[in-house]
Amino acid sequence: MRALSVNVAAAREDEAAVALWDHGTCGLEVRPAAAGRVELLAYFEHEPDQERLESVLPDAAIAGVPVPEVDWLARFRENFRPFRVGRFLIRPRWDKAAATPELLVVDPGRAFGTGTHETTRLCLEALEQLASSRALGRTLDLGSGTGILAVAAERLGARPLVASDIDPEATDASRLHAELNSARLHVVRADGGTAFRPGSFDLVLANLMALLLIDRVEEIRALLAPGGALVLSGLLLDDVAPVTQAYAACGLPREFRSGEWAALVFDAPEAFASPAAGAPR
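User: That's the sequence. What structure does it adopt?
Assistant: Structure tokens below.
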């Protein structure tokens, strides 16, 4: 076992985490560092390519560190406690509790989306508010990770539910979370929205990076039925303006904030039609 300490600006935590997963880390710890920075401790079963990581994360301070002898599973379970996000109670699968409509069971692993990060919390809050004013209808969790957002949408009455991701590890995690929560999800391995017909969904959830949301804007917009709703998360505050501009055809969004993160909720007009609508798929 090898370990690296990666010290980065707090705003680049997600970018550094993705780079470390791409380089084969088998586990991450995140610790506070100096003001405005965090330290990611990344563990590897092989010798990591530190030089390559430094080229991907040029502003990070990267150094090898000793690997302590720790029962990581026991430590993780000790620290992961049930917690609430709005109406939802999120608990790990090993913490036995009576099932309720508000309970979301998670099995934290490499796939993203356990409710602990602000971006997932913002999506859950946005979903709850949407469900208080409208039927969620046909729902797609695009880039689903664990699929926990799709599970939450089902708890709030959405039908049918599709969880889509290009990563087979993520689709496996979505199937597991569907089983753990007795949720009926259709899990699809696909690249973005290209696998679906235009206008197929009343609600699209996309907890992704801003650059990807902007790059795939027409593809994502095309998924919405007239009068549908779009929840975009994974945004830093500086991303709000360019993403709002990219999705201007969907109207003015409602904004949810938590610290340095934001989510946008668009209610597409009834007359909404994407430029891609009607294109064969």
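Residues 276-281 have pLDDT under 50 and may be disordered.
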